[in-house]
Amino acid sequence: MSESNEPVSAPTAYADVYRRSLDDPEGFWLEAAAAIEWTVPPTRALDDAAAPLYRWFPDGRMNTAANCLDRHLAAGHGERTAIIYDSAVLGTVEHISYAELTDRVARFAGVLRARGVGAGDRVVIYLPMTPEAHVAMLACARIGAVHSVVFGGFAARELAVRIDDARPAAIVTSSGGIEPSRRVEYLPAVAEAVALAEHAVGSIIVKHREGFATSLEDARAAVGSSTGSRWLDWDEAVAGAEPAAPVDVAATDPLYILYTSGTTGTPKGVVRDHGGHAVALAWTMANIYDVGPGQTLFTASDVGWVVGHSYIVYAPLLVGATTVLYEGKPVGTPDAGAFWRVAAQHGVRSLFTAPTALRAIRKMDPEGALAAEHDLSELRTLFAAGERLDPETQGWIGDLLGVPVVDNWWQTETGWPIGANPVGLEPLPVKTGSCTAPSPGYAVQILDGAGQPVPAGTEGNIALRLPLPPGTLTTLWGDDQRYIDSYLSAFEGFYATGDSGSIDEDGYLFVMGRTDDVINVAGHRLSTGALEQALASHPAVAECAVIGLADPLKGQRAAGYVVLKSGVAVDGEAGLQALLDDLRAAVRSTVGAVADFKQVAVVEALPKTRSGKILRKTMRQMADGEEHTVPSTIEDRSVLEALAPVLRTGR
Ligand code: COA
Ligand code: AMP
What we know:
It holds the Pfam family AMP-binding. The chain is an alpha/beta fold.
């Protein structure tokens, strides 16, 4: 696709649809709801009785798992492939039909039910990229239980925090995940998390995988009988299970909680409903991702992230498509041609990945020689999300594949793109560096700090006028007030995205980065607050600051600066290196390997305002070599001057 100045506001199919979605949301979304099978069809779309907490399809009833599974069987498509499980780390490929998946889900739903898990109960899922993830998630949906998937790269403490917030009746896990260089044992982390958590979990169901050191018995023994949890083997439990039928739930009932990083160390439990979610995702498959029944979508993310929830699991199954479940990496399993091999072998129509993965591939295979080895003629579009798609990478991959490259911008909270090129509806001309146009249902505005709209082309806070469309978060788990305080209070009548950006005169949306302390490392959203908490828990640390610096591969990387407690002696260079290693290990063992926390330095003091706020933004600008502003409220300029060489060199 070439660059063009043709305006989005020109009379296009997109413009008509977009306008209608905002002028007549009731009609627009009721019409979209026809794509879903309801046990009681909704007569209304939006319920604003409890505004600013909105609900969609208040009188509709349905079941998400039935829409993903049974419905396709009833239509005679049971033999169609639902999941292609392609494990690059094991070298295996398994095709699972809709009929087979339905059977597995119904049986596992029976296991959960036999363990006393019912509608509204929570189930924490801590699984690698194997079909059990789909089975467990859909089994919860089938019986009206609320799942909360925790990404396997998070360590025990992060898992424990989520257990205490969600208060699950059960945890579903496995022996572990396979990374290119090592096996990641899950059971020690689960045992530690269960012991750390105050909440007592009823059942822990473990899928055994070959080649892992810790057995279910080891993990059970490590925890002892103090927690009262019952540990069960997945296969044994399933063998004796009575399949469970889907239960009818209200469209407004919660389907899942997905924790995401906020500005503090305490994660936010984003709540998604059944009905609005199903309607919105089905709409996006046709109109954005351009994948329909029998066609194949390959989303190279992880089920632990929102992209995985929406586009590895729910959306493709809702529309009767085939989803690729890829257990592997973009590079190293075995090489930078892995995505192209998968796309060619499985006839992938749309491929969805993160810009960092594309940069990793480019680094290993700059000429794209490995792509040329595969027949990618089925591939129609490449989608990228998770972080800003830099124009350089966008140009490189577009030239290499010769297909449109669609940047799509969204967040855990929204569940589907706020801005994208709606290629399924109508491909709009591309502007490099822009995620194109607001998606139907999203009234996007750029506001200044005082909440006033800014002129076209001016950067400001990206805000969404309420109500948000269906499929977006309904609240934060158990804490409506935190939802209101975190998102709805900055600008009256708007949801604050936490991102900054601009809209140009043609209506194109440009997203530049976060306005808060959330950072994005290799497409993984992390809170600097959580990293600081991990550093601060080290006995030698008096105070610390973590900032996100620009990184050519991972978009951002975390850098930590710590001030030691007075009296802590560091014994020469060797002692300093040992301390720094200790600090890195503290982050790895509390937050997880995924933080990829390597850069840390000991400093004399941290620059602060007179009210004690650490000048993280100024530090970041200095470290990134950007022009920086020093607030007039700085307490002591000499602290910043002394820090400057450390910020420049990283040590
Ligand atoms: N379970 C356990 N550990 C995990 C993990 C998981 N699911 N995912 C990552 N990790 C670990 C890795 O093993 C690594 O550990 P190490 O320090 O022992 O090597 C650490 O976390 C960092 O991993 P990663 O972020 O994968 O970095 P990398 O340098 O190994 O690979 C990329 C770089 C770009 C290839 C990789 O980050 C990537 O594939 N990114 C795409 C992310 C993505 O798709 N995000 C979804 C957003 S839509
Ligand atoms: P997550 O909730 O983990 O999906 O992270 C959401 C955040 O990632 C957003 O608020 C953005 O800061 C960033 N992000 C995701 N996709 C994009 C994109 N296409 N362009 C720019 N930033 C993005």
